[in-house]
Each structure stands twice: as structure tokens, then as C-alpha cells.
Automatic annotation (TrEMBL):
The lineage of its organism: Bacteria, Bacillati, Actinomycetota, Actinomycetes, Kitasatosporales. InterPro entries: SAM-dependent_MTases_sf (IPR029063). This is SAM-dependent methyltransferase. It comes from Streptomyces minutiscleroticus.
Amino acid sequence: MRPHLPHAGPAPRVDQCARARDWAEIQERMLVPLYEAVHERLDVGSGTRLLGLGCGSGLALLMAASRGAAVTGVDCRAPERLALARERLLPQAYGSRARAAARIVEGGPEDAADPQAPAYNMVTAFEPIGCLAGDSEGLADLLAAATPLTERGAAVVLAGWGPPERCATSSVLRVAARLADPLRASAGWRPALRDDLEEVAQRAGLRPDGSGRVACPFGYADTESAVRGLKSTDLFDAALAAADHVQVDKELREALHPYRRKDGTVWMPNVFRYLIARTP
């Protein structure tokens, strides 16, 4: 759940390896219902040759590989997450024929080109857009760069946040915007718009071919897990660059309080949207 271009300003002072682990162990699983819905709808299986853009630590790829797909993941932003993806998909660790065909590439789509391999028939960009201003910048170019690697009519999947009134986490993300720029509290946050995904697809030269909505509640064992998980998304980078960790953690805990249940767990209902488009 990161924007496709890095935030402006100084880099936040964080332990990137620890944050990658928090993402893989706490936060990434929140989008499992989205991955499952897309894989089921597109009948991902042994005939699927999938290219995952912004693959991060590779959970969506692992799920597709478990269905028999041959998967390739690319990402140019988070080497720590890519290292975790390689651990998950190492053929010697699992012995699976499908996973043996898996590739994890640091870079862009062009770095995943393989003249000896068949063209991809599915591309995923599961990084949800629609909660930060400018978080779709660069995505259309990324998709356009992937298109030459696909066969004609290949499925391309984009993901986005649902309407703020159906995403409890929206209220928490406003905290990040306020801390990043106290004088313009809403400058970094914006509500998802109905046609966000369609506009990106159009700019990339893709043809929309269906969409859907999926409930993806964010559930955590306790408040501290919620804080760690949300900070691992990179959506708080600008806030961490403008304020210290103590302040960010304090305000996050306060924002999470309405979603804390009697047993101490934190539960935030959310809806995400996906768009299926086709390459020309």
C-alpha cells in the first residue's frame, strides 16, 4: 500500500529491514481477500504466466504460484521486501514445479523481459491507489512498459481503495496527512474517486473489461501491532519525515482507539476495488 513514486522530502529515519518484516508478517495479509477474488475470477492456474508489478514481499505471487501459475515479480523500490519474496519463492525451499519457475527481479518491467519465455498473459498491479494525492503517478507508465511483454488481450489488474465512507482506515490515514503538513491537513490525503482505476488504464492504453469490490478488513491482535502494520505501508513516510516516531505513534494510537474492541484487538472494515483491463 505504497504510492508508485516516493514521497518528496528527506527520507524517514526507519529500520527498513524491520519495516519489511512488519509488512510481510502483519500488514500484507490484509489484502488476501483481494488477491483471492482476482485469482478466482481470472481462473489463475497452470496456464497462467503472471507478471506482478510492485510485487513487494511476494504474497500475491506465492498465492498465484500455489494455484500452479508461473510467476515473475518486479519491484524497484524495496530491496528488503524483495529479499523476503525470494525467501518465499525459492524452489529449493519448496520443491514445487510452479515455484521453481518463479523469478523475482529488482527493477522495472523491462528488466523482466525474457526472449526465451512465452509472453505473459496476466499482469497485476495490486498496490492500491486512491488514498494519497499523486499515488497513481507513474503507474500508467509502468503498465505501458509492461504491455510489450504480454500477449494480445492479456488481463491487467489494478487495485484501489474504496469510498472513504466504506473504509474505516481512511480516518487513520488522515492523521498521516495532518502530521506531514499541519497547515494543510488534507494536502496528502484524498478520497478515492469512482473512475481512478479507469483513468489510469486509459492513460496506459488499456481497455477496461470488468471490475469488482472486495471487503478487506484490517484486523490486528492489538494496538501495537496495528501501529507497526500501518507504518510498514509507507503511507506514513511523509509524517515520519516531518515528526518524530513518538509523535506519530501517539497520534496513531489515538486514531485507532475507536476501532479497538473489548478483547484488545483492532478491527477496521474496508472495501477495495479492482479493475480488469486488457492489453491491445
